[in-house]
Amino acid sequence: MASTFSPPQLFLSPFLHSPPFQFPPKLLPSSSIFLSKSNSFSTSAAHFLTNPRISPVFQQSHLPFSPSSPPEDDSFSHENAQTLYHKCLELLRLSARYADVELARAVHCLIVKLDEDNYLLNSLITAYLKLGLLNDAYNVFMGISNPDVVSYTAIISGFAKSGYELDAIGLFMKMREKGIEPNEFTFVAFLAACSRIGELQLGIQIHSFVVKLGYLFSVYVANALMGLYSKCGVLDDVLQVFDEMPKRDIASWNTVISSVVNEQIYDRAFELFHDMVRIDRFRGNHITFSSLISACAGSCAGVLGREIHAHALKMGFDNHLSVSNSLIGFYTQCGTAKIVQALFQRMPIKDVISWTGMITAFMEFGMVELALEYFKKMPERNSVTFNAVLAGLCSNSEGLGALSLFCEMVKHRVELTEYTLTSIISACSLLGEKNISEQIHGFVVKFGFRSNVCIEAALVDMCTRCGRMSDAQKMFHQSQHDQNLPIKWTSIISGYARNAQPEEAMVLFRWGQSEEALVVDEVVATAVVGICGTLGFYEMGEQMHCHTLKSGHLYDVTLGNAVISMYSKCGSMEDAWRVFDMLPIHDAVSWNCLISGHLLLMQGDEVLAVWSRMKKANMKPDPVTLILVISSYRHTKSNMVDDCRRLFFSMTREYGVKPTSDHYASFVSVLGKWGFLEEAEDIITKIPFEPKISIWRALLQSCNFHPESTVGKRIAKHILGMQPEDPSTFILISNLLSASGRWHCSELVREEMRSKGVRKHPARSWIVHQNKVHAFYTRDKTHSQSKDIYSGLEILILECLKAGYVPDTSFVLHEVEEQQKKEFLFYHSAKLAVTYGLLTTKQGRPIRVTKNVLLCGDCHNFFKYVSRITKREVCVRDTSGFHSFSNGECSCE
User: Which residue among 292, 458, 570, 828 sits deepest, i.e. has the most Cβ atoms within 10 Å of its Cβ?
Assistant: First the structure.
């Protein structure tokens, strides 16, 4: 027999000749959809039809162990033949049950000597298929002189299950050419083939044929149709078929429940489950509970998920593999690392999905070392596992670890998918190393992955993060005519915003809309809304919010979170809460957006109220949540340091989150703000890893609240002794030296910055007027109305001086004359932006200015006088939060 399988090359033709019903949609006018796929069939398959020596009859009759011919006398009676016939059927069933290939082939040899009988040959085909011998089954099928519908159904089903979906479709066409009418099992096999390759249009035609022949009343056929529509993402058709079914089985309910879960309509899944129990009295099986638990994980329904877990325990499904795997995913989202680990250890059977889920859970909880330990212990790995580890390393900012793992994958020839490449590109983005990004870029281009739209968009994003904006722009403009462009627009727009060019991002967005080259889907809308939040562009953000409401995209949780964040950054918490309450589901990011909004407004008590509500909703906090909540204790109306200590020291035990540098910096800043400077310094010295300079800097900034303390001087000396790695540290050291009068040393530090090519982002302030961003630098005269702005500012300064304003020249860290220091102070970027706002904004409306660095003390003091003199509210958002000046007072005090 042939050792490899080569199905026949069939010439396809239309199989329906009469008009179908109105639903499903009408048939296509021709069979072009079939003909276009016939080219993919094996060209060598025709050899089966032309070479008689490979027919099953010829092969079996020439086998050395072929049984001898029956005796030519009356002893071989009709009764003996019937007995032999039934014995053959029984032996075929036994061969399939006990996986005995030799027995099946021996029976095949015996059957060849008997008269041809379709029932017996069909049984032989079925036995071979159950044994996984598709080639043998196909040879038997080709040897049948007049195959019937059962013959065709069996071999079509075998082809569909073995990855030969197009050949299964071709055999169905051939069956129709011979005038053989399919039965319900034929339709099930054919629809399974369509489902596996996502052939929706062909499935719609078959749906029409099913309706015409009256097989839609078959539960099996209806289930197969729902499976096809679900696989192709056509939920409306799934629900319509389901609603029209006169009778349903448990598979019907499972299909429709899993379909709505896949479309993230979780409430509907729970409603269907209740209907299943109420209407058909089905109690559910392991598939039902797996889908429901996944719905609970997707909707972060912690309480309901635990109830369904308890129900599964009661029903005896707790040890079922698929249920346990779903529970791992659920408790990853709505539980703790301890619960997930205990569940995994209790599982009697574990597969690669279980191990991968456990690794993903550890990565989600930030327990990278434990995740890698489990990865090494895995008895079996596949590309999905490697991709999960890569993605986990990236989500935990372990760019070097991801890069090392990727090199190992290449070395051991692990299959590389688009997810692999997307993750390693993200790792390069995390590292921000230009040279490494160029090497990975070259690897992707060399192996031909660049044609993938998602990967190319990730490459654009990587270039924007690695200082390669010119390369990003070049890639973007080279692919302008790509049909799948929105994701690339998103990458380049976000890149502009990331590189402190939000105005360019908005210009590009508007140009894309005016040229009708940009489709504003949920991905693009998310990016643009994020930029509106960065700019404080409330009006534009509100317009994008309206667009998302009209288009129905707001129910996307990522976009909804972006809108909440935008309103929070614009200081409109009322709008932020309104959007939050509208979202059908919330994740940790949703809560983080609210918390960060109240934190920007320096409303510590409101942050703690949101934190309490989040815990009541059984929402698991992520590391960012804890950083924000710890930071909020700096802004509470009363000293709540004891509560902050309890939260910080219980993080690992309660939430499975190990404190990072950011957590320590937040905790130290709280201790420093409330006067516990020595304790904060002691905490830093006991950190189990080398503390980053950001932690020391947090303590030093807190010392500004307690100028009489000696801790500040010690911390300043310590920072001076450290090797600065980022521009902000260089500037901090230079400013400390300047403030102490050591001008020469300060200049040496700045000279070192220049020699190393380190540049700080200059102080910049902007205001939005008439849907345009007006930006200013210190002593900036590039604005078209600069003469009016400077004239107005000079008048404003004189009025403030009369009211008692005294310029604080200690904030001028340059060795110049006192009068020149005042000149430096008077023309800071924030003062220019506020003056422009006073000149252009209608009376009664607040002046809203955004600044990319901290507001200096002199500007802070100046704006108090401005608000008192002009009777106008001045709102300035800097990197620490909002400062709302009104009647000579600031909200931050």
Answer: 292
